[in-house]
Records
---
Amino acid sequence: MNELNSMTGPDQPAKTGWKEIVARYQQPSLGRAVWQLVNTLVPYVVLWCLIYWSLRVSYWLVVPLVLLAGGFLVRLFIIFHDCGHGSFFKSSRANHFWGVLTGVLTFTPYYHWRWEHAIHHSSSGDLDRRGTGDVWTLTVQEYLEASRWKRFAYRLARNPIVLFILAPLFLFLVWQRIPNPKAGSRERRSIYWTNLGLLGMAAGMSWLFGWKAYLIIQLSVMAVAGSAGIWLFYVQHQFDGVYWERGADWDYTTAALKGSSFYKLPRILQWFSGNIGFHHIHHLSPRIPNYNLERCHKSEPLFQTVKPVTLFASFKSFTFRLWDEQRRKLVGYGHLRAIRRQQREAVRQ
């Protein structure tokens, strides 16, 4: 990590030279984009039909099919995500068309999400600009100074059952149906049109499969995809050694390479997650389509100095709750007991 750490010091060429490198991988490929749509959408539709058939045969068949369909829905969201960055196709019109369409399939309003996600990219790792498109994270001091109700709400929000099981369904079914008060008119209309599209899709699918079967399939597949998606997003910015800094000292390049993880997943999971594990590259240059991220990562030794987070090591992220500004690391609630003990000893003295 020495080369990466030097980026915050005098090594300015290393800090700026990456722009020429990533530029070579920012060109979308029509062939790769179309093939990714085909190998994602077609299996997803087929799996829906198989799940419907399995409901009449055995729930033992339903479970693995739902898990598989959830994986394809995650991959579909990555395509939606790339369209939002304008990186999936060369044509902006194609990006918007497929972004809106996949947005309905993933229950996500395209333009509204695109606006909020742009804020996330411009502020990730900045302690003074938290709150939009990120996981609620308090510093140790903020938690200690918070009211009892706020501490309770925070603990509830960071509870793994709430964060990875209940919150995803709430986010996609409820929260994304309501415009952000700060959103512009186009972003607000995106919410309304998406809601209308969802009603049309629900009506059509209920007519085709029956409303009970539609609800069972839709909710179960969304639950799997939502939990997996939130976990991916969580690990991308909540890991051991992550970078957080106050606004005056925040640096875009360092925030990308040290504040976004290189989540090294098994090959099959990397495929289903659309290479989003190369999140350090994605934050460095959101214009790189997902199908070019791995090649970009392998092209430059600087990028490979980023320490990978393996699937097994990522489970440690379950224990992270607060950011300790003094120690410059994420800590668990157990760290609070040591602080309170030190405070009591200081009072006695």
Note: Residues 1-14 have pLDDT under 50 and may be disordered.
---
Amino acid sequence: MIDIDQANQTAVSRMMEARPFLKRIDTAINVIPGMRDNLLLHAGPPISWENASGPLRGAIVGALILEGKATDWGSAVELVTSGQVDLEPCHEHATVGPMAGVTSASMKVYVVENVTHGNVAYSNMNEGYGKVLRYGAYSEEVLEKLHWLNGSFADIVNQALAEIDGLDIRALLAESLHMGDEGHNRNKAGSIIFATKLAPAIVRTNASDEEKAKAIQFLAENALSVLNPVMAACKAMADAGHGVEGSTIMTVMARNGTELGIRVSGLGDQWFTGPVGQPDGLYFPGFTADDANGDIGDSTITETAGIGAFAMATAPAIVTFISGTPELALNTTLEMYEITETEHSAFTIPALGFRGTPTGVDIRKVVELGIRPQINTGIAHKDPGIGQVGAGLVLPPTNVFEEALMAYAEKYLG
């Protein structure tokens, strides 16, 4: 007889015991399991080119041009539709990527090791806000910035990480939550901490003064600098709780712009998918909800690990970016306690008397109570080539939790 409660306690305990350290930066094809020259990784569950959203298509085209495999939209599409280039989810390769999440063989990635359990997770470089590859833009200026990020910038930061022997991302997150971050859409404090810890070591690298200054300035001015290593850290934590026999804890929640998919600890690598929601939020000047693509990105790994929207009570100022009120931020966190297994031992909320963040979504509770996990998200334009148009809130489809619970019942209770 399966003891579900014990299995869930084991899964979330492993998630909270995990200590993700940012060890270094390396080339994707050298470190990501199963990565190959003709493979592009993407956010969310599996998807074909035919069903891909505009921003995901734009990011695929941009990555193929970056790799030198294509010169324009037409030649890139030919590579994918003819089967010369494969598309697979980041999550199936121990990797996560924000928004479109497209990661190609030559890209540099953060290497984050869970020193408690030994598993490793990866994420690509963060480009900042606006017109960027992860939102489907692929203009010359976008590609020029990517060449710099994957070249000089990555080399300098890697040298700095080697000198300081890596960074404890769980500790960084715990501190940033006490400074007004929630770890998903608001990372201002965490990015400042990130830049502060790296800057002295960057100064001592062998790069030119101009390149060192450029790297430090980018880290300091990009309020999302730390998001990608944070996502890899959350992936490492969530993976530590995956594969526990009999557990109903969700260990993956991810979107590709067309579908959202989840995975459950006790159900192996099976995806349960449904249509993505349309975010409700605030838009940049000149854009409206009519311009918006459906929800997209692997960044919901933050909510999966117990931060992001689940920690909104620590970050009431986030509502100025995603819409809502400070009361909404507080009430969102309180509601998430209803569908989670425990309170995080490392991530705490000052406004709630240092109560731990809601951690470990139990699919049974989601179905029973009808409360879905809240998601904070950026909003991409529905057409490729344009980029980010806003940020907001969205919910996953109900069916993914119902279907996962039915599959669980068939496997363990049938």
Note: The domain at 243-413 is CATH 3.90.1700.10 (v583 fold).
